[in-house]
Design goal:
Distance between the termini: 59 Å
Number of helices: 7
Structural class: alpha+beta
Shape: elongated
Number of strands: 11
CATH topology of the largest domain: Glucose Permease (Domain IIA)
CATH class of the largest domain: Mainly Beta
Oligomer: single chain
Radius of gyration: 27 Å
Number of domains: 2
Order of helices and strands: HHHHHHEEEEEEEEEEHE
CATH architecture of the largest domain: Distorted Sandwich
Length: 347
């Protein structure tokens, strides 16, 4: 980029941030990240060419000077230095833009979290206030969903780009934390502070088909949670305090309740009959609903999904013909999804 082009570029980024279109910002971050990587390779190539031209100049100056060769090499060296400066200036501008866009996304998420914390302190008996707040909840949920959907459509990952979650130790700083490590850390951090989400322990050991990531529909989608087999009527309880942000149909006549817990985690408690509504504030141990048998197989279970930032999006449509499960590609790439298997560790 020329200096004028960088000025125009900076103005475009500033306008994008001002407009607050999270989808456009994340798409731009993805494109800029790729451009910066391409430029980094070009910079290395140009630096090698500069070294080679400098050798040619040194050789032309040794002994009897070859003025024609010296002039050509000096001209080429000047061109290469100009290319290098332009590439480095462009990458510096790109780096600043990526940081600014990342901070803008973080601000949106902070607004969401601040809003949800404010809701948790609202008098839950004030039905009129909660009615108006429920519309704001839906608006913020849509923005959060746009963020996660947009990350899933790019080669970026939410945890590394926005949360800055990287692996420290073993492989060194900058290496992505594995899904298993994230899950281990997540549940170990909550031992003693969260409680088990059912009034009775499941009698079964989980089979492969009930576990996170197991194939569904021949690999077209992946199981996004774990299934805890318990009798119908078993109470489902809040693992931690929080607020109900969504209640919707789920699978085969059952429903799902999404709870934003106070640490920012969103948990989907599904295949249940809810006893709560959107906007309800929950204390740890409050009853959310009861497990019911689905009308497909007649099985009864708590299907539970855990997300670091927000839920995976809209649930099934009211007639239960289509379900918003993660497809296999997005299951592999979705960085905010936590394996809930170790929920069994909770007391």
């Amino acid at each position: 980029m020329t200096e004028n082009a960088i000025v125009v570029f900076n103005e475009r980024i500033a306008t994008m941030i001002h407009e607050g279109n999270e989808k456009a910002m994340i798409k731009q971050m993805d494109e800029l990240t790729k451009t910066r990587e391409q430029n980094a390779k070009k910079i290395e190539t140009v630096k090698i060419s500069i070294e080679n031209q400098q050798k040619i100049i040194d050789e032309a100056n040794s002994g009897k000077p070859d003025f024609n060769k010296l002039a050509d090499a000096s001209k080429e060296l000047a061109n290469l230095n100009e290319q290098l400066k332009m590439l480095e200036d462009e990458n510096n501008a790109i780096g600043t833009a990526i940081n600014d866009l990342t901070n803008a996304i973080r601000d949106i998420i902070k607004q969401f979290n601040d809003f949800m914390r404010a809701i948790m302190t609202t008098d839950e008996k004030n039905a009129q206030v909660m009615h108006f707040l429920s519309e704001d909840i839906q608006r913020y949920n849509r923005r959060m969903q746009n963020i996660f959907d947009s990350f899933n459509d790019t080669d970026l990952t939410f945890s590394e780009t926005v949360l800055g979650i990287t692996k420290t130790g073993g492989g060194g700083v900058g290496q992505k934390q594995s899904n298993q490590e994230k899950a281990d850390n997540f549940w170990d951090d909550r031992l003693g502070s969260w409680i088990f989400p059912l009034s009775a322990r499941p009698s079964n050991s989980l089979t492969t088909g009930q576990s996170l990531g197991s194939d569904r529909d021949g690999g077209k989608r992946a199981h996004a949670g774990v299934d805890l087999i318990v009798p119908a009527g078993t109470e489902v309880i809040a693992m931690s305090s929080g607020s109900v942000i969504r209640v919707a149909p789920f699978y085969a006549g059952t429903d799902a309740v999404e709870v934003l817990h106070t640490d920012g985690t969103v948990v989907r408690y599904t295949e249940i009959k809810p006893s709560v509504k959107v906007g309800d504030n929950l204390k740890q141990g409050d009853v959310i609903g009861a497990v019911i048998a689905n009308n497909q197989s007649g099985a009864s279970m708590l299907h539970i999904e855990v997300y670091l930032g927000t839920s995976t999006g809209s649930l099934s449509n009211p007639n239960n013909k289509e379900y918003d499960y993660l497809d296999f590609k997005n299951y592999k790439r979705r960085s905010d999804l936590i394996d809930p298997m170790d929920v069994l560790k909770l007391k």
